[in-house]
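Protocol step 4 of 5: obtain the predicted structure for the target chain.
Materials: sequence only (see below). No template structures provided, no constraints applied. The aim of this step is simply to have a reference model before the mutagenesis design in step 5. Sequence pasted as it appears in the construct record:
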Amino acid sequence: MSSRRPERAARHRPRGSARERCLRRLRKVERIDSLFLDEGFGSLDTAILSDALDVLRGHVSTGRLVAVTCHLRAVAADLDRVLLVTKNPGGSDVRWLEPAEREQLLLNDVSTGLLS
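Step 4 output (structure tokens):
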């Protein structure tokens, strides 16, 4: 026979699905200071993409960290800081772009017809 009383064991058993438990915990959080987005921008039309970037800028203006992974250079040209990752035979090269370099990425896409 178990030494645990049934009523005590039931009290420690998680209730609800994992999603429900996660949502309950999130409701207790007063403020989330970081947001990491991985893609999703390619399916947005121009107006909605602009709205989404405005919302992200709003979060940044309140002191939150917003990190975005995106392959759309138009998004990179719109962000303050861009970390460019390029593939090479030995792995990847990573570097922060200067504002003029961000602009040049966009201009290159326009001249090759990617953003026409």
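Step 4 remarks: The chain has a mean pLDDT of 76. The chain is about 45% helix and 20% strand.
Proceed to step 5.
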